Amino acid sequence: MSNTPSPPGPAPAPPPPHRSWGRRLLAAGHVAAFAILGIVAGLAAAVGICLWWMDTGSGRAFATRQAEANVLGLKVEGLSGLPFHPRVARATLVDLITGKPWLLVEDAALDWRLLPLAHRELAVDALSARRIWVAQPAPSLEPPDGTVKDDANPLTLPFSITVARLDLPRIELAPSLAGGQGAALSTSGTVRLGPNLDGDSRLTLTQLDGGAAHGELTARFTAPGLTSHGSLTLELRGQEEAGGLVARLAGHPELGPLTLDLTGSGPLDQFQAHLDLKETPQAAKAADGATVTPRTVALVADVGLARPKGKAKRVTLDLKAAPGRLLPDNLAWMAGDAATLQTAATLADDGTITLESLDLAAAFGRVTAKGSLKDKDGDLTLRLVPAAPEALSPAVPGLALGKLDAVLHTTDPAAGKAGAKKQRVVTADLTVEELGYNDAHVRHLTATTKLQEDGTRLLLDLTSKLQGLDAPGLPPALTDHADLALTGALDRASGNIQVDKLDLTGGIGHLTGSGSALAWGRQAKGSLKLADGELATLMALANVGGTGGKEPPSAKPAPEDIITGHVAATVEGTMADGVAEGTLSVQATDLRTGQPTEDALLAGRAEISGKVRATLDGKDVAVTPLTVRTGAVDLAGNVTLKDNTLTADLKGSGQVVGNPASVAAHVVKTGPRLTVRDLAAALGPNRLEGGLDADLDRQLATGKLAATFPDLSSLGALAGVRLAGRAKADIVLGAAAAAPAPTRPVRQPKTKKGQAAPPSPAPARGATQGVDLKVVLDDLVVEDQRIHQATLSGHVDDVLGSPRPNVTLAADGIEAGQVLVNKVTAAWRGTLGEGDITLALDGTTGVGSVGRRRAFQVESAGHLTQAPEPRSPKEARGPTVARLDQLDGRLDQTTLKLAAPATITVAKGSVAVKGLDVALGTGRIRADVALNGKEVTAQVEATALPLALAALADPALTLAGTLDAKVTASGTAANPTADATVSIHGLSMQQLAVTLDSGATEAPGTPPEATPDGKPAVSATVANNPANATGADTTPTKKKTLEVKNSADRRLNADATLTAAWRGGRLRSTLAARTADGAVDLNAEADTPLALNPETMSPVIQGPVSAKINGRTELSRYNDFLAASAQRIGGKVSVDLAVAGTVADPKVTGSVDLIDAKYENGGTGTQIFGLNAHLVGDARGLAVEKFHGDTADGGAVDLSGRINLGDPNAQEKAPVLDLHVTTTNARLLRTDPITAWVDSDLTLKGLMNKPDLAGTVRLRETWVGLPDKPPADVADLPVRYVNGRPRQPQGQMSAAGGGLLVHLKVDIKARNRIYVQGRGLTAEFAADMQARGTSADPQLTGRVYLVKGDFSAQGQTFTLTKSDITFTGDSDPLLDISASATKADFTAILNITGRLSKPTVALTSDPPRPQDEVLSRLLFDRPISQISALEALQLAQGVAQLSGVLGSGPGILDNVKRNLGIDRLEFSSAAVGSSAFGTVTAGRYINSRTYVGVSQSVGGTGTNVTLEYALTSRLRLNGAVGSTDDTVGLKYQWDY
């Protein structure tokens, strides 16, 4: 401060008193304190006033308004006690949508303290409410627009909350919240919750319903807070009686008492929790009164929460569960009692959720999965492996699965981009193994699908592969594979659909297509194309499920019902305004139906095309035009459907099996009425015409069809059978008379004559369909059977229901095999289920065979009753009964007559023949047989039965003698018994007669020429062939009868007796056969095991066996049985054999001796004599110790080895051969054309019925003679079999019938010395061939090749330069033959190539010349320009024969010879310098040995007459008388 004096002026006032700075501050503080106190006092006064005001009427009203304004739907009543002890008499919350209250709180009270708020704590001393009522779950509190605000901050509170006492004595839940039954609860406890949700809370929940529904739950929760570290403790324990609230909330009020224990502890980054839920089992009474314990619930789970430092949060779950009654029975069975679930997942800070593993194991199988998800991008891999294929069927009935793998991936490139259109892409890969559903099964299925969003469009891309599909009715071709590809798009906004590509490849072929639709299908267009389709597969696919219940879907079609071929088809069309229009085109090629008729109509191809227009309701359809084209027929027409009327006009024409064919018809169908008009069909000259009107509902039709078939051969060609003759048929359709109602057959009372009385008439059931028909056949030929004339006429009622035919058949001149039926009449009257049958016929058996002819007549009548079809599959069908009332017949002089009516009854598992008593000639046969399941009763007795009846089975088996037999049988299959005695008296073969045609002719019936002694030269027989039914030449012919027989003392004439007894699984039998003179004396006895399998009724032969056979026989006594095969045997056989041991291991002792035997075969010329053999029995069978025979020219045949007995229980029941055959210089073949000497070394091994023949055959020397063409009057006699072929020789029968089948592996070799002579050929050949295959189908391969030789033709000699004949396995070898002839200035070359059946002959030369020029120089030694007219004629014939124009038939000169009646006609040129033109030579064979000829010079004077007589086959006597010289001499001809 400055002490400078103030400036001069008036005098200043006196200064104030002086104060210190401390006092000043104190004064300021007092002022401030009083000010603050004033403010605080003011605020306190204000707060106090506010708190006082809140408990006033206006304050409570204000608080109520504020609460109701901030909580929508809240209504508060009776608010008091504000602010520290508020009370609410009633608070209600209303659902704003329904307007109904859903929460009601009554008498609620809250006691809290104000001062703890200073410490940020809401301290509640008590919170209570007398009653709380809850009607439904709380409504959603989300904003109306559905948006949810993301809050990245964790949930926190502004202060901590402490509830010292929570007391809610009654909480009522509405039935909708408590499992359909209301519930009342109470809860009490304490709650402490910090700002970060940390705290420690304890609650007790008690159910107040009482009784069995009582329960209690205690919970304790201690948490460190979500944003702080520390320990979390969780305890939750409770129990509930049976049928409690928890059970009802779970929807299973039937559950028993439940206990719950949930504990958990640990920090949040390493937390573990354990859950244990159990149901106490309680026994219950089942419907049948039994005590059962139902399945119970058990659940044990361990949960882990972890977050390693710096890593994502991780959750693990390990669960073991028995769902008990929580699941339906089918699903509970799949889960089992020990299902486990193990899973682990992580949650990263960037929101990525990763499913590390999921492993679910249960009774049904196992499921594993893994994947991840971030925003909208994710992937999932899933595998399902059922424990068994049918393990999933409880959830999906009929499902079977082997394994399933799935991979799912989703992504959205536009995610997070504002304004971008949706581009989500979802792809799925699926692999399924062994998938089945009901009867369908797929071995392997893979599929890849891509679904992409493009704004409002969905884009689809699908590919799939299927393998091993198997389903009922599906053809095998579909079970292989199928590949599908499909791409397209769907616009969800506009409803437009686009199919860009459809591609299906599989058993049906290759199917492609595309199309589009607008506005959800209001308009559409598209196309489908099929290529490389298999018709059989498509037809089988179309027929799946279309059997109508008549056949199971798995029924396979018969081979003849399968149509094969390749199909291509195209379908294109559009649809708009309810109308569809399109075109159809189908082409089928390589068609084969297996039916000759259909194949002839199709001719391998078919095409169908047409334009279709139809409304979608199907009321207006038009196909115009419809065109059907096949390889044989073109069919065109129009088909329309309008106003429920179908109209079709069809016309077609073409060429079928070489005949013009046509068809036409006009068809109209209105409702059930069907009209066919102007029906006309023609094939060649055959016509079918008519029309009809039908009521399809009533199944009635009226109309007429007329058929005239003047030539059945074209219809036979169409049907694929040999058919000839004429036919005419008239068929009239109409309503039949009322039919009796069907009744089940009942036992009818017998009339006086023992026949069943007619059934009583039943009520009529309305008109039915009837048919009147008359069919006439003339000169009918079907394959090898012929019918001269046949007429079928009558009427059939109720054709479509239970037909009742009344028809008659009359026919004559029927040829069937070796039987000629002169006349037959038959009639059927009744129904198809029951009717009377009559049959009468007469004819001849043995026609065309080597056996004698036998006339026969048969007349029969009877009654047949068939039970109707059962009404249900469980109902058994009744028996079928055939009653034979009359049977009269005759076979030559042997008569047949039924003594009394007999019945035959056939039912399921049973057959019975009762009262059969037939007189056969002097004999009689009686039989009663019943077979019922596994039980049999039989008694058959025959007395003096003629053995000649064997001709009925085989006309060539002409036996003589009689038979007596008695057979009885009874018991069951497990224990059968039988006795039999059979005696044969005077067994022999009747005399055989062979009828041969001769060359001479005479009128039928003319007595034969007489020999000098007055006896007929031959016996004349003329076949009685009505109306020339065989189509043979009717020129009168003379027949020669050749009898082939033994002398009377060399015939068999044997007696034989067989006895047998079958008991206890053993068959004991004896056989004795002998002749009066002792030439045959054989005895045998056997004791063998024989039983039946009771299930299959097949024989079982096991156990010990013993048998003996001894005696002797002269082989010549059996020659009558070999006469048909032109074979003869002689010598003796002595046998003394015994068999012991078991069936599987028999032991043979004894021997068989062949003594001074011989064998002759007239067909092959084989002769083996001096045959001696000795066969000895041993442990395995028969051993051949000696077998030797001689042939002509010093040859020999030897055999060694053995014959082993086979096991009759083996699959192949036959002895086993092991034989070695050798021949040395054996002349085994000697016929007119061929003689052969053979060396062979062969083995015959294997089963006797199909042995293997292997080894080598060497042709030591072979002569083959090619006979010259016989004279013209010696005609080739063709073999004509009348009514069938004769009996085959035994060897042929074996091959044809399959009794003996020899497998061939034989090599045939000849180094040379195969000599072939005749018809101008003289040559020597060699061979190297192989015989393979079987005796029934031999296959010859290899070649025969030339050694040397020449060939003479047309008077010229050709030298063979090459001749190869190659066999390729069939009967038509390849030829490669070359020959040449050399003249002065050229060489002629003759080549023969090609198949033997159709050779190609070529004549060339060197230097080259025309063929006729070459032949002219060969024949006449001069050019063709210099030959005469007669020489030109002979040259023309030679050229024609060589070129194949005339083939092997007669030439020009042959026709001249035939017209002149001569055998020889030749033209030869004159010698050079002669004045004559040449020489003509003509001659005739007087008989087979004598020839007379004459030669005349043309233009000259020389004439000669010649005579030639054959003394032997090689020595001839010649003589000639002529104008120039006379000669007589001998000529010996030896062709080399």
Automatic annotation (TrEMBL):
Residues 1118-1395 form the MHD domain. Its main location: membrane. It comes from Nitrospirillum viridazoti CBAmc. This is MHD domain-containing protein. Residues 738-769, 859-879, 998-1037 are annotated as: Disordered. The keyword Membrane applies. PANTHER family: TRANSLOCATION AND ASSEMBLY MODULE SUBUNIT TAMB. GO terms for cellular component: plasma membrane; TAM protein secretion complex. The lineage of its organism: Bacteria, Pseudomonadati, Pseudomonadota, Alphaproteobacteria, Rhodospirillales. Keywords: Membrane, Transmembrane, Transmembrane helix. It is a single-pass membrane protein. It is found in: Membrane. PROSITE patterns: MHD.
